[in-house]
Each structure stands twice: as C-alpha cells, then as structure tokens.
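Q: What structure does this chain adopt?
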Amino acid sequence: MSLAIAGMGWVTPLGGGVDSVWDQLLHRHEACATTISEQFGDRSYSVFRVPESVMAGFAHPRLRRASVISRFAAAAGLDALRAAGLEPGSHDGGRTALIFAISQMAA
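A:
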C-alpha cells in the first residue's frame, strides 16, 4: 500500500485555500480577533472568525443542518480534492481518503 498527499485545503481566519493563506502568512498578515461577551455573562472572549466569503462557494443542501465545524471540514475537503485535480464524483472513491486536522492556537 502506498500513500500520497495529492491536495490540501485550508479554511482559516485568514481566508481559504493553501496558496492564498500561505501568501498572507509570508506577508506577515494576521487575523483580527473579535471580542464576544453577551452570551457568557461577565466574561469576554476573543475569537478569530472565518470570513463569510470563504464559505460562500460551499453551500450545499446536505449541509444546511450541519455544524459550523462540519461545514469548514467539507469546504477544506472539497478544496483539497480540487487542488489534487479531482472533482467530487468523477473519480474512484474507493481509492481516495480525506484526512482532517483541526488546529487551535492560543491567543
């Protein structure tokens, strides 16, 4: 058995797509934190939101009730397939796997 990484997909607060996000990192761009407090009593929290434009092209009827994290995973997976030159449904699904990694960074 052999394994090869054919494509990667990223959904981040800096945007989506490996090339786009990597370019922003090389130019030392940083995501902006948003403070939220209204839902958590007297404590406030900083969050880094994924831009809505990143998810705009990933609307699908089967994802309408999925969690936000599941939608991010689906968007990154589809991006990885496209980066590998594969379109969903046009290849041998028995030989293709998607592996998801979620990274959390402390502020």
